[in-house]
Automatic annotation (TrEMBL):
GO terms for molecular function: carbohydrate derivative binding; glucose-6-phosphate isomerase activity; monosaccharide binding. HAMAP family: G6P_isomerase. GO terms for cellular component: cytosol. Its main location: cytoplasm. It is found in: Cytoplasm. The lineage of its organism: Bacteria, Pseudomonadati, Myxococcota, Myxococcia, Myxococcales. Its EC number is 5.3.1.9. It comes from Stigmatella aurantiaca. The active site is at E322 (proton donor), H351, K455. Transmembrane segments: none annotated. Residues 510-529 are annotated as: Disordered. This is Glucose-6-phosphate isomerase.
């Protein structure tokens, strides 16, 4: 197509939202009108299903749960008065609690006030808060945020070293819907130990966000933590950012949580409408379907040309891949669905993998995100009639064109700024696009059975380790090779796992396991002295 024809196609298919100052351009996706016609009926069914979901249907059938993240920003739409009330009460509590902290009315044990916030959580209990904090935060925020989002000991040491002498001024927020996630439990215990090492009581610095009566809830109550905030059954981890999970950290950081909610609410309003060309979420879902033949055959590369949106791709990776990456359809057929997501930011990535995008394997489509506002206030030119921000747009449009010339498809999302309202709108846009797409490909977007397999397997590994350690302690000084030890603990078929566990044990001082070299790596002997 010539540039002129592309301009016509751009004008024809541009979806604009004046109230959000937002637009979605699908002109560089090579769908046809026939495709749109073909998708009309499946899309109608997807809308019907979303409508039912918003009314409180059990939209997560195997977990028998409602799916209520849309109610978080429109509590009046929740199907039960009690749900609406708890949403409003929790929001009021978030505001109240943050104000008390900021005003120094809720104070730490020894310091004058809380100035730092350590968040312990993983997956949806970390990614949303991280996205919001990084997108909207700044140097003058009333609290500085840190995260434990893994069970990596060195990672946690590094964070604690950054917190340094300010630990007595640090509020720790432990976030876990289930309240039983091991990584988060470990992070909490490591944090607790750090406070104790400084003679501080953890409970006087700790807040939980978790499900009612979860393990974490009970632990928080037993140890007199400052507070707990609810995480409801009808909110999934990956869609929890506009519940207390994302709102409490954001409010403590001094960010505009009402703006986040308002943006999401407005986007929800627009993405409920059935006229497809006016519904950006429906258009996204259709474009994903078009790009990957409804089977996810092309990866989605998310390229925001804005540093503040660096974590968008990481956030969407969970939202999209945990929602859509499913073995079975709603009817139990094996479908192995999914949509792979990766990306960082432009123009930085032009100096990394964009080379392959233009010339290499053709297995993706790009979503560019353009932010119109460059910075607070004016920019100085870097050369005649051009600022750094002008270059950023230049690189975006240039790359979009260069990819199109090579037949690579792309979507362009344009937003006015990186404000709370815009971010809330982006979050809601993708939540609904995922919901609609899941309906189009007939899968349950709201469970994650695949993740459980890894958790169970990890439990088996730790169980083997316990057996090994008790055997090695019983046979003090004797030990054996991985093969011999696997047999000795009654797990000869697990010799490989036993080998990995022993190598790790011997590399660390914690359990007293040492290693004596053998003639090959597999002849090494392990013992407890
Ligand atoms: O909030 P929780 O229960 O600790 O779960 C954390 C994450 O673990 C998962 O359940 C599985 O990885 C995610 O869906 C979730 O966001």
């Amino acid at each position: 197509m010539s540039q002129r024809e592309l301009w016509e196609r751009y004008k024809r298919y541009l979806c604009v939202s004046p109230s959000l100052g937002f637009s979605l351009d699908i002109s560089r996706m090579k769908f046809t009108e026939a495709f749109l016609d073909r998708m009309r009926e499946p899309l109608k069914q997807a809308f019907d299903a979303m409508e039912e979901l918003e009314k409180g249907a059990i939209a997560n059938p195997d977990e028998k749960r409602q799916v209520g993240h849309y109610w978080l920003r429109a509590s009046e739409l929740s199907p039960e008065a009690g749900i609406g009330r708890s949403i409003r009460d929790t929001l009021a509590d978030v505001h109240w609690f943050a104000e008390e902290i900021h005003a120094g009315r809720i104070v730490p044990q020894t310091a004058e006030r809380f100035t730092q916030l350590l968040i312990v959580g993983i997956g949806g209990s970390a990614l949303g808060p991280q996205l919001v904090a990084d997108a909207l935060g700044g140097a003058s925020d009333p609290m500085k945020l840190f995260f434990f989002d893994n069970t990596d000991p060195d990672g946690m040491d590094r964070v604690l070293a950054q917190v340094g002498d300010k630990l007595p001024e640090t509020l720790t927020l432990v976030i876990s819907k289930s309240g039983g996630t091991k990584e988060t439990r470990n992070g909490m215990l490591e944090a607790e130990r750090a406070y104790k090492a400084r003679g501080l009581e953890f409970g006087a610095h700790a807040v939980a966000i978790t499900g009612d009566n979860s393990e974490l809830d009970r632990y928080a109550k037993k140890n007199s933590w400052l507070r707990t905030f609810p995480m409801w059954d009808w909110i999934g981890g990956r869609t929890s950012v506009l519940s207390a999970v994302g709102l409490l950290p954001a409010r403590l950081q001094g960010l505009d949580v009402d703006g986040l909610l308002a943006g999401a609410r407005e986007m929800d309003r627009q993405t409920r409408q059935r006229e497809v060309m006016r519904n950006p979420a429906a258009l996204l879902a259709l474009m994903w379907f078009h790009a990957g033949d409804g089977r996810g055959t092309r990866d989605m590369v998310i390229l925001p040309y804005k540093d503040r949106l660096l974590l968008l791709s990481k956030y969407l990776q969970q939202l999209v891949m945990e929602s859509l990456g499913k073995e079975l359809s709603l009817d139990g057929q094996v479908v192995n669905q999914g949509l792979a997501v990766y990306g960082n930011k432009g123009s930085t990535d032009q100096h990394a993998y964009v080379q392959q995008l233009r010339e290499g394997v053709h297995n993706f489509f790009v979503t560019f995100v353009e932010v119109l506002k460059d910075r607070q206030g004016p920019s100085q030119p870097v050369e005649e009639d051009a600022t750094s921000g002008d270059y950023l747009v230049g690189f975006l449009l240039g790359t979009r064109r260069a990819l199109y010339e090579k037949d690579r498809e792309s979507i362009l999302l344009t937003v006015p700024d990186v404000s709370a309202r815009t971010l809330g709108a982006l979050i809601a846009l993708y939540e609904r696009a995922v919901g609609l797409y899941a309906q189009l490909v007939h899968i349950n977007a709201y469970h994650q059975p695949g993740v459980e397999a890894g958790k169970k397997a990890a439990g088996t590994v730790l169980e083997l380790q316990r057996k090994l350690l008790s055997h090695l302690r019983a046979k003090k000084g004797q030990g054996g090779t991985a093969d011999a030890l696997a047999t000795a603990i009654g797990a000869p078929d697990e010799a490989e796992t036993v080998f990995h566990v022993l190598e790790h044990l011997a590399a660390n001082p914690d359990h007293g396991v040492t290693r004596t070299e053998g003639s090959s790596p597999f002849d090494a002997r392990y013992q407890v002295a």
